[in-house]
């Protein structure tokens, strides 16, 4: 049988024709799928922009509140329960709903934005026990300005919620984290001190804030400290809270009696404290070890 006759016999064979057709269709579908994947990767790289915000970033909680405000029609929610104590002492339970982990669509700036919230189940924060999370924004186009606008709106929303209140921070590990909810600012006249003491401190602090150039020109570190002493309940902490409210500053709480506080950690926390904040060092006397022996030990 010649080659031409063999090829003719294969062409006339219905089983061979059907098998060859299936192979051709399968090959075409494989190429089409691969082409679609390559095309999607090319499209995402050149015609879409993404922004990832990890939960360790300071703007993460701002963005969660912003997403909650704009994703009103989402049906996938997670709840955050908190307790608020009023000035009268009454405790109120508050439920805050946030979009749950998953994908959400938000219409913002005449664009659809895809929001993906991911929760790492195998990685948790050692200080709070909560799992690490991240939020990723995806939008069409190549203009980054939309992400700057979102971050700015989230920041302004957070500041509006804190308006007229004092934010408290506490040291956790190597960073400062918000402690509870912002407290209503306390007026200075509500703190009773010895005549003239509070006024002198307030005037001195305001003069210090208004003259940073004086310190810079003389090469002096721009910082100032005050030692408040007295028995418990005499108004030291209350005055600091009122002073922070008067200046519009936040308060960073740190106890020097913390056994995990080393010199390196202390210096690091002081250097990364939030701007416009008062660092309150409690239990200062615990930082000094008395070298005097007890009468029983000297004997």
Automatic annotation (TrEMBL):
Give the matching Pfam families. Answer: AAA (PF00004), BCS1_N (PF08740)
Limits of the BCS1 N-terminal domain = 23-191
Q: Name one GO molecular function term.
A: ATP hydrolysis activity
Q: Where in the cell is it found?
A: Mitochondrion membrane
Coarse class of the protein's main subcellular location: mitochondrion
Keyword Membrane on entry = yes
Identification of the protein by name: BCS1 N-terminal domain-containing protein
InterPro entries assigned: ATPase_AAA_core (IPR003959), BCS1_N (IPR014851), Mitochondrial_chaperone_BCS1 (IPR050747), P-loop_NTPase (IPR027417)
Taken from the UniProt entry, a GO cellular component term is: mitochondrial membrane
Coiled-coil blocks:
none
């Amino acid at each position: 049988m010649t080659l031409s006759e063999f090829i003719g016999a294969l062409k006339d064979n219905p089983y061979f024709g059907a098998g060859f057709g299936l192979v051709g269709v399968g090959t075409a579908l494989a190429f089409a799928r691969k082409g679609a994947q390559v095309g999607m990767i090319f499209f995402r790289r050149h015609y879409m922009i993404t922004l990832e915000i990890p939960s360790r970033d300071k703007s993460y909680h701002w963005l969660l509140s912003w997403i909650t405000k704009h994703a009103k029609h989402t049906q996938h929610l997670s709840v955050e329960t908190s307790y608020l104590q009023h000035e009268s002492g009454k405790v109120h339970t508050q439920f805050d709903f946030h979009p749950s982990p998953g994908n959400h669509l938000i219409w913002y700036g005449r664009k659809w934005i895809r929001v993906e919230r991911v929760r790492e189940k195998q990685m948790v924060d050692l200080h709070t026990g909560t799992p690490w999370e991240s939020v990723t924004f995806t939008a069409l186009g190549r203009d980054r300005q939309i992400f700057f606008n979102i971050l700015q709106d989230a920041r302004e929303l957070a500041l509006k919620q804190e308006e007229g209140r004092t934010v408290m921070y506490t040291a956790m590990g190597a960073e400062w984290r918000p402690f509870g909810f912002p407290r209503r600012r306390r007026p200075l006249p509500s703190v009773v001190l010895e005549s003239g003491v509070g006024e002198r401190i307030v005037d001195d602090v305001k003069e210090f804030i208004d003259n940073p150039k004086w310190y810079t020109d003389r090469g002096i570190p721009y910082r100032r400290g005050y030692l408040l002493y007295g028995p418990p309940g005499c108004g030291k902490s209350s005055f600091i809270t009122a002073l922070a409210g008067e200046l519009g500053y936040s308060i960073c709480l740190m106890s020097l009696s913390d056994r995990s506080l080393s010199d390196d950690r202390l210096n690091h926390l002081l250097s990364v404290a939030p701007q416009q904040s008062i660092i309150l060092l409690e239990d200062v006397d615990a930082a000094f070890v008395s070298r005097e022996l007890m009468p029983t030990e000297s004997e």
